[in-house]
Amino acid sequence: MDNASSVKEFILLGLSENQGLQKIYSVLFLAFYLITVAGNLLIVVTVISSQGLNSPMYFFLCSLSFVDICYSSTTAPKMIAGLLGGSKSISFVGCMAQLFGFHFFGCAEIFLLTAMAYDRYVAICRPLHYAALMSGRTCGLMVLGSWLGAFFHSTLQLLLTICLPFCGPNKINHYFCDVHPLLRLACADTRAVGAAEVVNGGLITLSAFAILVSSYVVILVSLKGQTAAGWHKALSTCGSHITVVILFFGPCTFIYIRPSSNLAEDKAVAVFYSIITPMLNPLIYTLRNQEVKSAMRKLWSRKVGSQNAKVQHHSHVSKRSEKIEHLWL
């Protein structure tokens, strides 16, 4: 920390220094961020408000949507502010907080996706034991374990980075504070720290990905001999989850299981898992899920009905007031 005190703030260079591109990016990513927050918040409200969506799958989906809101909010607002002409500087403490938050929520998403894969495995391969294996207590412990695992991962990433000496250059060639671009600015040999960062991030990513792939291989093998209707039902149940896993784990694996050699490449790939995937998750899960769409329609009908009832009540009260006033006159 004493060594790091010589650098009080960093400058985020962003995605591009071209003014024209910055204006286009600002509009585009502002729209992406608003869709992400609105879409994921809608899923959270729908699952919490609907009694029919009380299965473990929707409990995990609600948790995932909450994580996506927090995950995108660690990077997108600062990036959009910089693109709109705001300050591109970030304090040293703010930079470390952003790094911690990004890895915390990103790792929580990895663990939640793994828990969702296990849920689908039990639902398809062991349906008779589903209620016992996926009880409310078990699901709660799995989500708690996801948060705790993410906390340990992000704390290690933070400690490895914050102990480095930053004594000179302070321009980060990225749109948020991450490990690889910060290693480039350290005034020390960072090969050992870089290797530790890769092992830490890569081990979690590859382990989770191996578990996910194994679970879906087992699911496909278990479907051998099933009817076409059985295949269709299983694939429709797992299709959304597989799509999200590919979109999230593909770019993450590319970034975190190898030493960074090209930051321009890293920035472009990071856009997918930090901004685009959290935006697509609500669309993927709702467009393919009739229960969620039905619950949303009921929620909307209830809201409209409640508003109409309020209008009718106010109209009735107004008419009674007019009658009373007329009698007094």
UniProtKB/TrEMBL annotation:
Entry membrane topology: Multi-pass membrane protein
Transmembrane segments: 24-45, 96-118, 130-152, 203-223, 235-257, 269-287
Gene Ontology cellular-component terms listed: plasma membrane
One example GO MF annotation: olfactory receptor activity
Gene3D superfamilies from the UniProt entry: Rhodopsin 7-helix transmembrane proteins (1.20.1070.10)
Main location: membrane
InterPro entries: GPCR_Rhodpsn (IPR000276), GPCR_Rhodpsn_7TM (IPR017452), Olfact_rcpt (IPR000725), Olfactory_Receptors (IPR050427)
One Pfam family, short name: 7tm_4
Ranges where the G-protein coupled receptors family 1 profile domain occurs: 39-285
Subcellular location: Cell membrane; Membrane
Endpoints of the signal sequence: none
Entry keywords, A to Z: Cell membrane, G-protein coupled receptor, Membrane, Olfaction, Receptor, Sensory transduction, Transducer, Transmembrane, Transmembrane helix
PANTHER family: OLFACTORY RECEPTOR
Family: Belongs to the G-protein coupled receptor 1 family.
Name of this protein: Olfactory receptor
Organism: Pipra filicauda (Wire-tailed manakin)
Gene: LOC113988640
